[in-house]
Amino acid sequence: MERLGEARARTLKLIEPLDDEQLNRVYSPILSPLAWDLGHIANFEELWLVQTIGGREPLHGELGRFYDAIENPRKTRGELPILRDAGLRSYLADVRERTLEVLAEVDLGLDAEDPLLREGFVYEMLLAHELQHNETMLQLLQLVDDYENDGFDLGPAAAEASGPEMIAVDGGEHEIGAPARGFAYDNERARHAVELAPFEIDRTPVSNGTYLQFMEETGAEAPLYWERDDGGWALTTMAGRDPVISAHPVLHVSWHEAEAFARWAGKRLPSEQEWEAASAELESVGQAWEWTSSDFLAYPGFEAFPYREYSEVFFGDTYKVLRGGSWATHASVMRPSFRNWDLPERRQIFSGIRCARDA
Ligand code: AVJ
Ligand code: FE
Predict the structure, then answer these.
(1) Which one, 23, 326, 340, 349, has least CB within 10 Å?
(2) Nearest-angstrom CA–CA distance, 253 and 122
(3) Confidence category of residue 150, pLDDT binned at 50, 70, 90
(4) Cis, bond preceding 190 (omega within 30 deg of 0)
């Protein structure tokens, strides 16, 4: 119960500096207004815990359909008859109260019969879902002028840069995916062996400094949120307007840009299997979501659980996989098998680059 409370405190802390107008405002067609994310967090919790597990009726009848992420594309979310202002805040609190009631009634034990309850799956899913939406909210918060938040580390830290530039990984069989026990999303299973050729992978993600060299030599566009500033470059995010720091990992580049960078560097992007096989030896994970060369596909033996709309509807060659995590990702969301995905042209996520090459 405690971790759910911590996640909620983090969610509320994020919106603390904002007024209702800012919560409802549509800042970008590719990002939800914050009010939608907040209602969706509560509605997801109500759906899976209060309704599905607890057998209770929803608090607001059919409201849930407006929080369905598939039915309501991001660009439409500003216009929906969703909860706002005081009504939204009490919905978050009322659902949470019922959640705690239901949690007190059920057994989230190791051998619970219902797979939703076994090993606390539903609890872990709610927690992960809220924390993942915190990151989506942070994507939007980049667009809010003069956003300040005491006690919240906003922005990247420098990647360490000592030691060999690349790590060698042996070829052969590598186990990929989440083990059968413990919380993971359906797309991380089944764990399976893959055969990899030997390869090398960068120890650190690509820095702003190196990316700038690439831009200067090739004429490539600047990452999202970079602006010209007295002949140099400034970052214009929620943190304000600051000079681009060379040693920080480059963020907000698209998959196409990551690919072009890797080619310029005489390297390539790692596949997601290579990334995972190397992950135990990488330091410096958590600086950026790292684009991989892989399409978001089902693993052999995939079974949708608990709902098709989390992963299955996205499988195919439309989305590219990112691995790792960024400064905006909560530590409990990051694990070696976690798969993130987005469209190859997107740059609003905290996406960076780590290169690889054949050994
Ligand atoms: C894993 C970040 C791609 O935002 O579409 C949140 C996470 N899924 N609610 C997304 C998610 C359902 C998902 N990503
Ligand atoms: Fe969601």
Answers:
(1) 23
(2) 34
(3) confident
(4) yes
Cα separation, 103 vs 108, whole angstroms: 8
Q: Can you give the pTM of this predicted structure?
A: 0.97
One-letter amino acid of 209: G
Tens digits of residue pLDDT in 209-222 = 999 999 999 999 99
DSSP sequence for 85-151: HHHHHHHHHHHHHHHHHHHHHS---TT-SSTTTGGGHHHHHHHHHHHHHHHHHHHHHTTSTT---TT
Mutating to test ligand 1, I would choose from 132, 133, 296, 310 the residue with most ligand atoms within 8 A of its C-beta, which is 132
Q: Whose CA is nearest to atom 14 of ligand 1?
A: 340
Q: Is the pLDDT of residue 199 over 80?
A: yes
Beta strand 351-352 with 288-295 is: parallel
Whether cis (ω within 30° of 0) applies to the bond prior to 128 is: no
Contact of 277 with 34, CB cutoff 8 Å: no
Distance CA 111, CA 12 (A): 34
What are the tokens at 191?
């764990």
Ligand lying closest to the C-alpha of residue 313? 1
pLDDT in tens, 33-75: 999 999 999 999 999 999 999 999 999 999 999 999 999 999 9
Q: What's the CA gap between 302 and 294, in Å, rounded?
A: 17
- Distance in angstroms (rounded) separating the CA atoms of residues 331 and 337: 14
- From CA 92, how far away is CA 104, in angstroms rounded? 19
End-to-end CA distance of the chain: 47
Which helix (H) or strand (E) is 215 found in, with range?
helix 208-218
At 195 the three-state DSSP class reads strand
Measured in Å, residue 310 CA sits from the centre of ligand 1 at: 7
Q: Which residues pair with 341 in a beta bridge?
A: 321
